[in-house]
Write a structure and sequence with these properties.
The protein is α+β, with helices and mostly antiparallel strands. The chain has two domains: 45 residues, no CATH class; 197 residues, Endonuclease, Chain A. The chain is built from nine helices and nine strands. It has a seven-stranded mixed beta sheet with strand order 3-9-8-7-4-5-6, sandwiched between helices. Strands 1-2 form a two-stranded antiparallel ribbon. It is globular and about 70 Å long. About 3% of the residues have low confidence.
Length: 258
């Protein structure tokens, strides 16, 4: 795949395109592809298609790229709660998507997400549910297909007429630390409505695999959400302030229990 040239002294020199191919290869591996498939896609250009099973890939390597940061799960949860609360208090009936990897992670948050769903136009969550289900007073439950990259991802995505935010964390491989809060995720996030819309498009694709009826309702709702002429910057400022507050509180709580 790489074609370095050699100096008279025998050293290899790699081009900018070689470096770009390596970065694309790393991106595809992070998004859950096999080494063979990642290598194949890395050779076809910077706009190579990211895996359909990855919300992380849609935000990290899609048309509206976001930079990533490695964070422990406890920090990811604090940021997620900040986003959830800001979207709820903004009092705008938007589209809400969540991903929890496993049911055991969703169960403690079920009552919280029931309240969030009550204020949303449409809400659904992904986890290793046994079957698709639409509870009358809670988010629709969408099973994650076995082997999907989504098995390793944690996400919240909200899209309204004047507010939007998506946070997606992908768990780093090869780690099973104790306690659970020390698990590490590579986090990407954005308040760009088009980037968030791309995450929702990917959620429709995912839901279509295991819950086509739920996917169709989200698809129709997504098509009905038009991008505002002017993004409400007040939402972004308020969201950033809440994130700082929640992180500060989480840090203070952690120090108090050391």
């Amino acid at each position: 795949m790489l074609q370095p040239v050699r100096t008279p002294g025998g050293f290899r020199l790699y081009s900018a395109e070689d470096e770009a191919r390596i970065r694309r290869m790393q991106a595809h591996l992070t998004a859950g592809l096999s080494a063979a498939e990642g290598a194949r896609l890395a050779t076809v250009g910077i706009n190579a298609r990211v895996p359909d099973g990855s919300l992380y890939g849609a935000l990290r390597w899609g048309p509206h790229r976001s930079e990533a940061r490695i964070l422990p799960k406890r920090t990811l949860v604090a940021l997620s709660h900040a986003a959830e609360d800001e979207c709820s208090l903004w009092a705008e009936r938007g589209l809400l998507v969540g991903a929890f990897q496993e049911r055991r992670h969703y169960t403690p948050a079920r009552s919280r997400w029931r309240d969030l769903a009550a204020g949303a136009q449409r809400a659904l969550v992904f986890a290793d549910f046994a079957a698709a289900r639409i509870p009358p007073d809670a988010p629709a439950e969408v099973p994650v297909a076995i082997g999907d990259p989504l098995e390793r991802e944690w996400a919240i995505a909200w899209l309204g007429q004047t507010s939007a935010v998506a946070l997606v964390g992908r768990e780093l491989p090869g780690e099973a630390p104790e306690p659970d809060s020390d698990r590490r995720f590579e986090l990407v996030w954005s308040a760009d409505p088009e980037a968030v819309r791309e995450v929702h498009r990917r959620a429709v694709t995912l839901a279509d695999r295991t819950a086509p009826e739920i996917a169709q309702t989200l698809r129709e709702d997504l098509e009905a959400v038009t991008q505002p002429e002017l993004l409400d910057t007040g939402f972004v400022v308020s969201l950033a302030s809440r994130m700082i507050d929640y992180l500060t509180h989480a840090s203070s709580h952690e120090r108090a229990h050391e």
